[in-house]
Design goal:
The protein is an alpha/beta fold. It is built from nine helices and eleven strands. It is 27% helix and 17% strand. It is globular. Bound molecules: manganese (II) ion.
Length: 309
C-alpha cells in the first residue's frame, strides 16, 4: 500500500533521535583527567542552608574578584581532586537583567564548585526587542553548549532563582528533575503537582526523548507546562528534592517589557501531543550574533526570529 509506506517513511524522517543529535566536538585538551578517582556521591564540603540577599549592588567585577580565580574562561570549572560524575551545562535564558545575573553568578558559582561538578555556564541572550521566547533560548543553549563540550546533563535556570541550600544538587537523575520546588515568592510551596518551571535538570537522553522544548511559545507562560506534558507523554516522571532542600529565593522584579502573557498558551497546551515530534530541537532555527567569553560565563547573543509585531 503506497499510502501507508509514505506515512511510515515520513514518520521515520521526523523521529527526533535521528535529526536532533547535535554535532559534538570533544576538545582533547578539555577531557577530564582519567587518572583521578570519581568524586564521592555526596560532595564532602557542602554547607547546607545558605544566606542569600539581593539588597547590595553587586558589580560583575565584584563577582569576578569573589569567584574568578577558580574559573576557566567561559564560566568553566571542574574539580581538581576527583573526576566529576556529570558534565553539566547550566543554561540561563536572558535579556536585560544584568543585576540579576550578577547576583546569580555570585551565589551559583561557589555552590556548583562545592557540588564538584564539571560545569559551564551559558547565558543565552535574546537579541532585539521582539517577544521573548524562554523555551527557544533553552533549546539554543542545549545546542550551543554541545558544540563546545560533551555535556551529558543540562540544568535550565531562570536568572532570578538562587538556591537556599547547596545540598540541592545541580545534577541529572533517572528522571527529569525539578529543582526549584519551594520558592519564597510562592511561600515555599509547590504551586501544583506537574509544575516544571524555574530550575530543571534533564540528561541529554531525557531532553532528546521529548525533542527538547517547543520553539513556538512567544511571551510569558506555558512553555514549562508544555515540557512537563512532553515528559509525561514519553513515560517519564518528575523527580524532586524535598521541600527543605529545594528552597529558593527569587529576585523581585516587575514584568519585563516584550514579555506579556501569551494569549495562546492555554490553547497550545492542548496541542502538545500533536506538535512535540515536529516542534523542538529538531526544528530549531536561529542565528548566533555573538559569542563572548567572560571569566564568569559564555554569553551567546542570538536572533531567535521573533514574529513581527
Ligand atoms: Mn521571575
Amino acid at each position: 500500500d503506497r499510502k501507508l509506506f509514505f506515512i511510515s517513511a515520513l514518520n521515520r524522517e521526523t523521529k527526533p533521535e535521528e535529526s536532533a543529535e547535535p554535532t559534538v566536538r570533544p576538545n582533547p585538551t578539555e577531557s577530564p583527567g582519567r587518572s583521578l578517582d570519581p568524586c564521592p556521591d555526596v560532595p564532602p564540603n557542602l554547607r547546607g542552608v545558605l544566606h542569600v540577599e539581593f539588597r547590595t549592588n553587586r558589580t560583575l567585577q565584584d563577582v569576578r574578584n569573589h569567584v574568578g580565580p577558580l574559573l576557566q574562561l567561559g564560566g568553566r570549572y571542574r574539580p581538581t581532586s576527583c573526576r566529576a560524575k556529570q558534565k553539566v551545562a547550566v543554561i540561563v535564558p536572558f535579556r536585560n537583567r544584568s543585576q540579576h545575573l550578577n547576583h546569580w553568578l555570585y551565589y551559583l558559582h561557589p555552590v556548583l564548585m562545592r557540588q564538584q561538578l564539571d560545569y559551564g555556564v551559558y547565558v543565552i541572550n535574546q537579541d532585539g526587542d521582539g517577544a521573548f521566547n524562554r523555551a527557544k533560548l533553552m533549546n539554543i543553549g542545549f545546542n550551543e553548549s554541545l558544540k563546545e563540550y560533551d555535556y551529558d546533563c543540562f540544568v535550565f535556570s531562570d536568572v532570578d532563582l538562587v538556591p537556599l541550600d547547596d545540598r540541592n544538587l545541580y545534577r541529572c537523575s533517572d528522571h527529569p528533575r525539578h529543582l526549584s520546588v519551594a520558592v519564597d515568592k510562592f511561600n515555599f510551596i509547590l504551586p501544583y503537582a506537574t509544575i516544571f518551571g524555574g530550575v530543571t535538570a534533564l540528561s541529554k537522553q531525557q531532553f532528546l526523548k521529548v525533542n527538547g522544548f517547543s520553539n513556538t511559545f512567544w511571551g510569558w507562560g506555558g512553555e514549562d507546562d508544555d515540557l512537563s506534558q512532553r515528559l509525561s507523554y514519553r513515560g517519564m516522571f518528575i523527580s524532586r528534592p524535598d521541600s527543605v532542600t529545594g528552597r529558593y529565593k527569587m529576585i523581585k522584579h516587575g514584568r519585563d517589557s516584550h514579555n506579556d502573557p501569551n494569549p495562546n498558551r492555554e490553547q497550545k497546551l492542548t496541542e502538545t501531543y500533536l506538535n512535540m515530534d515536529t516542534d523542538g530541537i529538531n526544528s530549531l532555527s536561529y542565528t548566533v550574533r555573538e559569542i563572548r567569553k567572560d571569566l564568569l560565563y559564555t554569553f551567546v547573543t542570538v536572533d531567535v526570529q521573533a514574529p513581527a509585531g
